[in-house]
UniProtKB/TrEMBL annotation:
Residues 8-201 form the Poly(A) polymerase nucleotidyltransferase domain. It is found in: Nucleus. Residues 567-577 have a biased composition (Basic residues). It comes from Coemansia reversa (strain ATCC 12441 / NRRL 1564). This is Poly(A) polymerase. Mg(2+) 1 binds at residues 100, 102. Residues 353-556 form the Poly(A) polymerase RNA-binding domain.
């Protein structure tokens, strides 16, 4: 008897057909996705095709010019060819209105990546229909970002070791990777992975509809971002493809339902595989947790099917893993109700209320004086925020650190040095709907946070040693500020904080020292080759939920949510405590010391808060009347700032010395108070 054939690493779970009821729910899902704008119009589809046709011609012209530059005869230069391949959501056929197109430019061996970022960028700048050109040559996958006739394009390049690029070139053969460097392989594999996913699903139409649903759900729930530590588009596509393999004859509504059932029970770190990991002709490293310790550390591994297989979710952190799992469980409850006709698919796509969820937040601000530079700086910081999250996790002071996947970007015209300084520090004027704002005097005159004398025991602001104590950097920034008036571009990222219950005395005082991870993160950012101290600044602020700017709520209620039940909070804390204890036992940190000899913290971030009675510090509990007595002490604190030396000085508070309590918590003794 011949062995039955199936797609995937295991046999299907269920090969039966969907019922009429399930088919009807799939039709309902399709209608809702259309109403949610998840399908492009015919006009937009044609425009994309025209744009891709123009880019293909430009690539051939680029290869011709580069060939002449490298002294090839004109007859040979005109025959060298060049070809583009699309990948990502466009190639998968699940892109919506306004989505970008990931495009790969394949060129012959004598054309270099430097040619691509020199000649090709120059050609693009010559075209009036091309705007917002941002070359990013020094990144994991070098790319040119642009907008071509209103279509966002991410253009990458791969150099093949052959003299010409024929029109019938295909990329599935592993032999084309021979003698390629790792950068070209990463560029090429975007297209190879996408094509392999389509080859490994039993029904492409069903896969596409189910994936559109999951993509919309992940975006609405703010868990769609590879740079921020969540799943990216390729990772979500591979999980949906795996469910399609397990239920090959089911319709999209059933695939979506089984997606949540399977993922909620998945035993991580067991990897999600669409096929067995294979070796290839070239000696590239493939994902192998038995041999590579870094691969063993992946928390939710989803492995790409094309050689060399890699983990598409290596950025997932301890916190983002918990967030994904909670959202999957929420989705499971909803889809089960949908199948029972107790609710509709729309409930699945409700927007996440991130800014109503937590009591405390960190605001990471980065700014520059050039719009094009800011675009690249924004992407750079977005790719680094997750490293701040992992550093904060090691302090043991948080149950959860939730990075928000979107940033808030603005440009301001400043009328004075003081305005420019305050904006760089993260004290932004009240935002309007327009992307560009010329603030008036009233909107810019935001008072510097000061701590009332009555509440000095409960909140502390201290200077950042990097900005004020090392090599006179603050003085340098201040001396140069007179030439910085004009337009300033800003990007603000937010982290939601779920605090632990440790380090609390019977009196209720609490200490949170984030100086070490914050200084490390700022140092990491500033050591990058993209950083320029003369034109760029970074600042980090600690905020209460009620201090968040109005723009993040989008006109909705600011009232915090009571969405976490006690059992959910206990389960989160239990899992976090287990992870924190294992990591802290290996390498104790300064934050975990509670002995009498603990040195006073005088630099970086030191924030002290007084919790209110009958309120949880961990969740988004609604404020009670007892909070009103301490409202004056809840002003925003500039907790780390590398570029500001304002003339308006906040109230100075002595550095706190942590002292242990009988219960093992920490209270603060303020020197000089």
């Amino acid at each position: 008897m011949s062995k039955p054939k199936y797609l995937g690493v295991t046999p299907p779970v269920d090969t039966s057909q969907s019922s009429e009821e399930e088919e009807a729910l799939a039709n309902d899902l399709l209608s809702i996705l259309k109403s949610e704008g998840q399908f492009e119009s015919e006009e937009e589809r044609k425009n994309r095709e025209v744009v891709l046709g123009k880019i293909d011609k430009m690539v051939k012209e680029f290869v011709y010019r580069a060939s002449l530059k490298h002294k090839l005869p004109e007859s040979l230069a005109s025959a060298c060819g060049g070809k583009i391949f699309t990948f990502g959501s466009y190639r998968l056929g699940v892109h919506g209105a306004g989505a970008d197109i990931d495009t790969l430019c394949v060129v012959p061996s004598h054309v270099t990546r430097d040619d691509f970022f020199d000649i090709m960028v120059g050609m693009l700048k010559e075209r009036s229909e091309v705007t917002e050109i941002t070359p990013v040559p020094k990144t994991y996958v070098p790319v040119i970002k642009m907008q071509f006739s209103g279509v966002d394009i991410d253009l990458t390049v791969a150099v093949l070791q052959q003299p010409t690029i024929p029109e019938d070139l295909e990329l599935f053969d592993n032999n084309i990777l021979r003698t390629m460097n790792s950068t070209c392989v990463r560029s090429l594999n975007g297209s190879r992975v996408t094509d392999e996913i389509l080859r490994l699903v039993p029904n492409i139409a069903t896969f596409r509809l189910a994936l559109r649903c999951i993509k919309l759900w992940a975006k609405r729930r703010a868990i769609y971002s590879n740079p921020m530590g969540f799943f990216g588009g390729v990772a979500w596509a591979m999980v949906v493809a795996r469910i399609c393999q397990l239920y090959p004859n089911k319709c999209a509504s059933t695939i979506v339902t089984r997606f949540f059932h399977v993922l909620s029970r998945w035993r991580w770190p067991t990897p999600v595989l669409l096929k067995e990991i294979e070796s290839g002709p070239a000696h590239f490293q493939v994902w192998n947790p038995r041999l590579d310790r870094g691969d063993r550390d992946h928390r939710m591994p989803i492995i790409t099917p094309a050689y060399p297989s890699m983990c598409a979710t290596h950025n997932v952190s301890q916190s983002t893993k918990q967030i994904i799992e909670m959202e999957v469980k929420r989705g499971l409850i909803i889809v089960d109700k949908v199948m029972q006709h107790e609710t509709t698919w729309r409930d699945l796509f409700e927007k996440d209320e991130f800014f109503r969820r937590y009591k405390f937040y960190l605001q990471v601000n980065v700014s520059s004086t050039d719009g094009d530079v800011q675009h690249g700086l924004h992407g750079f910081l977005e790719s680094r925020v997750r490293q701040y999250v992992t550093r904060l996790e090691t302090t043991g002071q948080f149950v959860l650190i939730h990075p928000y996947i979107k940033s808030y970007d603005h440009d301001f015209v400043c009328k004075s040095d003081e305005e420019a300084q305050r904006i760089r520090a993260g004290f932004l004027p009240v935002q309007q709907e327009a992307p560009a704002l010329v603030p008036d005097e009233k909107s810019i005159n935001v008072p510097t946070p000061a701590v009332p004398e009555a509440d000095q025991d409960n909140m502390e602001e201290s200077s950042d040693s990097e900005s004020k104590d090392r090599d006179g950097k603050a003085e340098k920034d201040d001396s140069n500020s007179s030439g910085d008036t004009g337009k300033i571009y800003t990007s603000a990222f937010y982290l939601g904080l779920l605090l632990t219950e440790r380090d609390r005395s019977p009196a209720g005082k609490r200490r949170m020292d984030l100086s070490l991870p914050t200084q490390e993160f700022i140092r990491l950012v500033k050591e990058s080759t993209v950083w320029d101290d003369e034109t760029m600044t970074i600042s980090i602020r600690f905020l209460r939920q009620e201090q968040l700017p109005d723009e993040v709520f989008g006109g909705m209620s600011r009232e915090r949510l009571h969405y976490l039940s006690s059992s959910k909070k206990r389960s989160i804390r239990k899992a976090s405590k287990k992870n924190n204890e294992s990591s802290l036992s290996d390498k104790p940190t300064k934050k975990s010391r509670t002995d009498d000899t603990a040195a006073p913290s005088t630099t970086g971030i030191v924030v002290s808060t007084m919790p209110k009675q009958n309120l949880s510090e961990q969740d988004g509990g609604n404020p009670t009347a007892q909070e009103n007595t301490a409202k004056d002490s809840d002003n925003g604190v500039l907790v780390a700032n590398d570029a500001i030396k304002s003339d308006e000085q906040p109230t100075t508070i002595p550095a706190p010395v942590p002292l242990p309590t009988r219960s093992g918590g920490i209270r603060l003794k303020l020197l000089g108070s």
